[in-house]
Predict the structure.
Amino acid sequence: MAEENNQEYTGKEVPAQSEQQASNIPSANAPDPDAVNPENANASQKQGAEPEAEVKKAEAKQPPANPAAGRADEKKATEAKKVPPKKEKPPALEEKPFAEFIQEHYIPALKKSLAEKGIGDLDVQFVQEKIPVLGMSQEPPCWQVIGSWKDKQRQFRVYFFNEDISGHRAFSFTSNASKPSTLEPFLIDERRITLDLLVFGVFQRLNAQKWLALN
């Protein structure tokens, strides 16, 4: 055998290799120090060091802060604060208080429209009084727009019972200064009452009586 031949040649015993003197050649089952393994402490430390280095490199590549851009943003924010708020849309004429609407809008529009139709001496009053129709003297007073011309020989009245142009309304007319005999509904089929409709309603009734100069 080899060991015996060796002993004969040297005259000394060749000691067997101990576990501590094992070869440095890695075996197939030995863990790779660079492999990702929870039990491999060396690999964990190396993995942890790489992201930190990458973060520092990324920070170094970022452009420096631009002071001018910051000042521009502050200027825009200041200008935005200085912009006045949008003005609220004014209410429609018909949404104004009842008396203001009648006196400042309805009566002037009524006079202008009837003057264009040939009634130049129209007198219009806005009063609150009893209903002059026969048989209705016991009713409470209500607001009325009274128009008269030809020395009050011709007269019409528009009644507003609820101090609201969209509320219950009525119409009457008379001639020769007599009391009106009937109280008629006024624009009862209209869902939305407007200034133009209120003027047109009077024109329509007077035109039906042939009281306008065009007839």
Q: What stands out?
A: Helices lie at 2-10, 41-61, 67-82, 98-116, 195-208. The first strand starts at residue 123 and ends at 129. Residues 1-11, 14-23 have pLDDT under 50 and may be disordered. The CA atoms of residues 36 and 43 lie 6 Å apart.
